[in-house]
Model the fold of this input.
Amino acid sequence: MNFTEQLKKQELFSIIGQAADALDQEAYVVGGYVRDLFLQRENKDIDVVCLGSGIALAEKVAEKLGNNFKVNVFKSFGTAQIPHPEFDLEFVGARKESYRADSRKPIVEDGSIADDQNRRDFTINAMGICLNGNRFGELLDPFDGQGDLKKGLIRTPLDPEITFSDDPLRMMRAIRFATQLEFDIDGPTFSAIAKMKDRISIVSQERITDELNKIILAKTPSYGFKLLESVGLLEIIFPELVALKGVEYKDGKGHKDNFYHTLQVLDNITEFTDDLWVRWAAILHDIAKPATKRFHKKAGWTFHGHEEMGSRWVKGIFRKMKLPLDQKMRSVKNLVRLHLRPIALAQKGVTDSALRRLLVEAGDDIENLLKLCRADITSKDMSRVRKYLANFDRVEELLIELEAKDKLRSFQPVITGEIIMKVFDIPPSREVGIIKSAIREAVIDGIVPNEMKAGYQFIIEEGKKLGFTPVCSVEEIEINQSPQ
Ligand code: CTP
Done:
């Protein structure tokens, strides 16, 4: 089936064509929708460019669609949008735009469809298909975008320096599309990015991060990061990651290149999850290795405490990247902090209390932590990888069994500080804290079950050590605790 037949299948396009005919305007579906039609990828964003007023066309289309459809008009941009249950429909009049060197604010005038295509980012995004009745399905592809789709090539329609000056974010977009579509970047386009990389500084962090997140969510994100690194953009937008690059040798002892290791972990984790935040945890898991790197004559290179330090860096990096500072960030912190724990258990042999402690600390992040750890097992020596993975399977099984039995992920001690104060009739004090952490530790270690009677007995003994005598029985406490 060719693309005209595909367009015909969607009645909306004929309706837009009829509306454009009624207004005596030319109208084209352009950009990503056309690209994805060729790639047979689903796309819900339909961008329509017309010769004349995009707002008038949108109003005509809404009229034809019926009463339920409204038009949102953005007068200052000359654009209009129709909220449609299935698509995001946008209309704009063809424009000529140019940008000043120091700003993203364009100077805009009316233009032809060719002007509109000239000012688009890549040849594969610069195709248009006419929707008017007498030319329905006619493809306008002045830069051979179709050919580039076949070759798998990202290339700018104009001289890349002009295209990137118009909007330097396009340098990131080039790499993002190359990564998502597994395409190459054309030589001159690639060289222009390397030359103009510093212009990224006029772009807002939100837009940069948006592209970075799309790279992270691709099937093989390492490809995008390697491209970003090789053109010099990564050093500007994410220097902490570039700092992981390199290998140092001393007394014949080297360590692995943590940049490539991190990228390997990121690629590995794509097999286990599409969750952006777990992928961010993979990117950040070793981020503090350069800062904690030491050389010891006997042990060689060590990175002691990199997980704690890395976890403390997460908030600053998220803030700089304009990523949310909410529960998602806290989960990433938790994953970075705990990322060595499951594998250490797998290597050293597992005690019940170490497993319990991990479950309590990881809480709801436990599944993602196990995914991160699995992804982190990288080595050139495949027999070593297999051995670790086998040990790891065992740790995972034990954790699942333990969780099913003791529900530790949402662990809340039954004996609270208030109960301790009531039992001994004492005010809030250091001693309450001592007893509270003693019972907490005992429960996590499996010495005392997390139940009122057993917990009461335990705190009586702990209280005695501090010279306290109980003033109420477990029954009195239970009566007070039960819901009224
Ligand atoms: N475009 C551009 N320069 C930009 C952003 C967008 O030329 N900096 C043009 C491209 O022609 C692009 C179209 O606007 O195809 C729509 O852009 P966008 O909404 O970002 O969507 P897609 O290209 O469809 O890609 P995606 O949805 O994956 O972001």
